[in-house]
UniProtKB/TrEMBL annotation, chain A:
Pfam families membership: 2Fe-2S_thioredx (PF01257), Complex1_51K (PF01512), NADH_4Fe-4S (PF10589)
Origin species: Pseudothauera rhizosphaerae
Keyword Ribonucleoprotein: no
Domain of life: Bacteria
UniProt entry tagged with the keyword ATP-binding: no
Name listed for the protein in its UniProt record: NADP oxidoreductase
Necessary cofactors: FMN
Signal peptide: none
Keywords, ordered alphabetically: 4Fe-4S, Iron, Iron-sulfur, Metal-binding
NADH-ubiquinone oxidoreductase 51kDa subunit iron-sulphur binding domain span: 474-519
InterPro entries, sorted: NADH-UbQ_OxRdtase_51kDa_CS, Nuo51_FMN-bd, Nuo51_FMN-bd_sf, NuoE_N, Nuop51_4Fe4S-bd, Nuop51_4Fe4S-bd_sf, Thioredoxin-like_sf
Automatic annotation (TrEMBL), chain B:
Pfam family, any one: Fer2_4
UniProt-recorded name of the protein: 2Fe-2S iron-sulfur cluster binding domain-containing protein
Keyword Iron: yes
Family listed: Belongs to the complex I 75 kDa subunit family.
Amino acid sequence: MSDDGKLVADVIARHGHEPSRLLQVLVELQEALGWLPPGVLTQVAGGLGLSRAHVEGVAGFYSFLHARPVGRYRVLFSDNVTDRMLGAPALMEALCGKLWVERGKVSEDGLVSVDTTSCTGMCDQGPALLVNGRPLTRLNHARVNQIAELIRRQEPLAAWPAELFHVDDNIRRRDALLGSSQRPGEALKAAVMRGREGWLEEMRAANLRGRGGAGFTTAVKWMACRDAPGAGKVVVCNADEGEPGTFKDRVLLTSFADLVFEGMTLAAWATGAQRGFLYLRGEYRYLLEPLRAVLARRRNAGLLGRGILGETGFDFDIDIHLGAGAYVCGEETALLESLEGRRGTPRIRPPFPVTHGYKGRPTVVNNVETLAKTTLIAINGGAAFAATGTAQSTGTKLLSISGDCAYPGIYEYPFGVTIERVLEDCGASDVQAVQVGGASGVTLAGYEFHRRIAFEDVPTAGAFMVFDSSRDMFAVARNFVHFFAHESCGFCTPCRVGTSLLQGYMDKLASGHGAMMDLADIEWIDRLLKNASHCGLGSSAPNPVLDTLLKFRPAYERRLQHLDFAPAFDLDAALATARRMTGRDDPGAHLDTTQEATP
Amino acid sequence: MSGTFLFDGQPVPFEDGQTILQAARAAGHYVPHLCWHPDFPAHGSCKLCIVKVAGRHVSSCAMPAKDGMEVESNTPEINGERRALLQMLFVEGNHFCPSCEKSGNCQLQALAYELEMLTPRFNHFFPDRPVDASHPDVLLDFNRCIFCELCVRASRDVDGKNVFALTERGIHKHLAVNAESGRLADTDFSAGDRAASICPVGVILTKRVGFASPIGARKYDAQPIRVVAMQEDE
């Protein structure tokens, strides 16, 4: 057996030949081999008892898995609008120039490839990139030179200066959660003292709502799962923080991992679940070992495993699953598909995960922040929790603030805080717009800054991107449109085709060929995406365009060439090849475009 | 739970577990669809079967019927959206009906007539999708794929072969066959498989019978799809 063959066999054996471990097997092999050669996919299919086509389908779905050779150094620049505002495109061009490589292609010697990737969750310290999956922040030309030199010298990543990979927490404002001084196990002890029923009663009183954006009441979800028939209940922590501009979960998992795992254990206490999964986005792969160390410590302390805190029948343990670059897996049913080792395609709902989730079992899927918040409820009680925030949005909310402000980072506020207040605190001035809730959220213009962060006013999963008056809001919306086209899973017609069509129209406008009719088409596609999409990705994909068209319409209209119709291509430019071939460039070889334009 | 709901103002009875589409079809109401097939569980990807229930759009193939719900289907609004979804399917692939041997037997084409689609409206994508003619009895022309996954499902659930799967993502999504070479000839696919005859468009074509029945005398040439779809098991 070849070396690769032995490695593949070992990895498959370590995962127990379990078909649902497919994605984890592929992620490990990709890390070891750099890419997934055709023979490896065939061997994986055989080893897991799956069809080869299925394995190829899964490998092809995730951005970070490569079924074609890639460079030994794979550099991916984060392409969120905040990275772009901090100069990412010029830095990427500089790196490509220094390494003599074309963007998106592998260098001739197979050494390096440079491309972009969706937001890596480092917006508070951008521009950022991933090199072979490891994050590198605060890029500037000096750092780009350094990286180019390290790659040219073929320095192994382990020997790169550690400060390149340093990631700051940037916590700027602490409230109940980030200011909490609880010890590991404290919340769990309090909840066990109350008994399962008493604990759920506190959760009900707290009226905690999901921090992932949808705002579903957590206690209702937990009770539905507890009451659902079926054994082997599951708690899943959704750490697939892919929403552009959001990075609060990164900080919670870095410095407050105990609270997150304790929250998962509290959910298990309430629902009777015995298995837990933390689904960690591929971009946060660098947190895997530290998180595993926290889990090991908690097992040793009797906070995970059999008979937690000496309570007979309280058995619960947590596994970490890695994602591999797919925003759609943040949708809970797509996440479950991915957990089961398949393509991250959202399921048909109903049935909902609380009754038919992971492998058909009753499953609770909660956001990282939601779970961490439950520890506060366990310690201080539901009423104390409900005493902050607003009546419909209790407690505090973590905001990930980035963009045009003096102090980007994590801010914790009680719900009900106004946009104005947040802008003042983060040192933003001359603000034109704020994007709350990420690409799928809402674009707020100046006249709306009195509005409040709350489920009943401006709901958010946590992103808060600031744009000053020098920014072009059309370019912002176009960046988000490209993001959605890249991240659409392609399952349903409106999202698969609609996001790409929308990208085409935005690019047409950007290149100066726009016409009034294009705006009408954009609005028509927006409506189809909203109405007919299979999941939240498609139905929220038009949000940035709808909002900017409504509130910043001049940014679109000044790009229009004609008031009625303009073709997507430039007729005269299309003749360039013919002119080159014939060696002509006289007026007769050009279309009289001015005459064309006049009716 | 059984009961009755209103479908475009007409009362439609349903049995427990029936979806809106199933109940409506049993009562003689046609709902346009491409990825739905009576022999398979709902897939919900093409979205042609969207209807409006209480102001919200839902996929009628997947949504369980409920007593007293009011469903709007054959309305200018919904049909307009269905037409736009068809236009999307046409422009993302390469559909040249006049030269396609499935013409007249193609559900996509028939639905476009049914919903009076006169132009593609959007810019064509003109994707590069090579055909696979390797198999002795069957031709695969991926240019016409609409990603209904009926072949994937039929091969997996009926034939027990798993010949097909989808790979990549978004607009780059495409069919893959179960062979390291990527060629259909290197799989155990046969022209007698259920998957060989289930394609609603012209991707999976049996060789040497293409024009045995002339264009003009084919399934949807004789009767519109809203009639054909209600008569047979497609």
